[in-house]
Automatic annotation (TrEMBL):
UniProt cross-references to InterPro entries, sorted A to Z: GAF-like_dom_sf, LytR-like, LytTR_DNA-bd_dom
Gene source species: Geodermatophilus obscurus (strain ATCC 25078 / DSM 43160 / JCM 3152 / CCUG 61914 / KCC A-0152 / KCTC 9177 / NBRC 13315 / NRRL B-3577 / G-20)
UniProt KW DNA-binding keyword: yes
Name of the protein described by the UniProt record: LytTr DNA-binding region
Biased composition (Low complexity): 10-20
Keyword DNA-binding annotated: yes
Residue span, HTH LytTR-type domain: 372-478
Region (Disordered), start-end ranges: 1-25, 346-366
Keyword entries, A-Z: DNA-binding
A GO term, aspect molecular function: DNA binding
Amino acid sequence: MNGAKDTTNGASAAASGAASPDDGLERVSAARERFAAGADTVHGVRPEILMSWYRCREQYEVDPDLDRAPAAAAGTAHSMEHDVVFAELGGLAARAAGEVDGLDGLVTVADSDGRVLASWGSRRVLHLAEDHNLAAWSAWSEWASGTNGTGTALESHRPVLVRGPEHWCQGFHHWSSAGVAVRDVVTRDPLGALQISCWQTPLSDAVLPWLHTVAASTEAKLRRRAHHTGTLLAAALADARVPPATPLAAVDTAGKVVLANGEAAVLLGTPADTPACAPAHRWTPQVRALPQLARRATERARQDPCWSGSTLVYVPFLDTPVSVAVRPVFDGSQVLGALLAFGPPDPAGSGEPLDEPGPRSAEPRPYRDRVIALRDDRWVLLDPREIRFAEVDHNNVWLTSDQGRLLAVARGLDRLEQELGGKGFMRVHRRFLVNLGRVREIEQGFKGALFLATDTRPRETVPVARRHIPYVRQALGL
């Protein structure tokens, strides 16, 4: 009787035209073709996939006909947290590969740039993956390879599943992939990603909960480590030698307050003399510039362990800029955060800059030839030669310069490109405008892909969109 009931329900479903999973993917495939052809509105696509398609088409200009991931460029420097994550994910991936092997599955670990570090799986699927460069030292970020488990997870704060034609690049439509990013518990920046992929086989419903557990367990270990770093920051403040009554605070790499003395607590709007070592318990200061200041200081300290600096920050409590001296705090070679010593109000705007000045021309240039940018609450006048490249984020334009990473006053990359006309800058990508005079190396990737490396250390690279490659080659005499 139960069997008859099951048969009846199946017949009813067929008669009513209920869609099968294959029907759903066929609709997704048709929607992707329309979207890749320029349609702005498509239906039947999950929101997280559609948002990824928008990024691939509008921001990253990924070729939808790509059938192999490009070779990865040099990645960013890895911190101790990265090493913890890679070791943890590597062990989990090796164990998971045995379970996924029967499904012709592949497990990969990637860094925060989407660069695959290692992969595990059956010999057959490893061989299939090589055909698409789903292997070590290939680039699976969204900007390099479109919508995929690794790249889309790095853009998201939860596990993601990408089925067949949901991949932006047509060459990957035989794969189903699911990924999760592990994030720094302090800054919430991605540290690495784990992906499970199957060839022409749907992924199990248990994959996403398993990935969620993987990320949660790994981040739990990072939280325990971050609690220890908070303790070290509080100890550094207690040991600091500063004049009496100096407002002094210890902040982590995200600008959250771990400990502040009474004088600093008044300026920052946080509790006084109360350590907050655990990341979840740290306080957000009422000084909007501190997160950016902490990130810049962390970058500078990683480049130069002997560095310290000072700048001005606007303090709402006093309604005026205040000078602040910045001294990084280390545990071995690892930057934990910084000690901030606040000085008297400085409405005149004096004080040393946080970043060292870049190269200056022998003869002063007219101010109308300068590019105007913002650093905290101050205007910065940049000689165009100080700018290495500009990157657009929505309608904001960020300048990577010898004065640090600054927000351009110009709204939109098109307007900045007009301002810099005739000054050696070239649009190489929908997102990037590059000073060709600061390019020192050209990296050639798979199928003629190009990456421009600037004249700095550590290395920084900018991708060249496919349609811009002939013009870049001509401009650089390649």
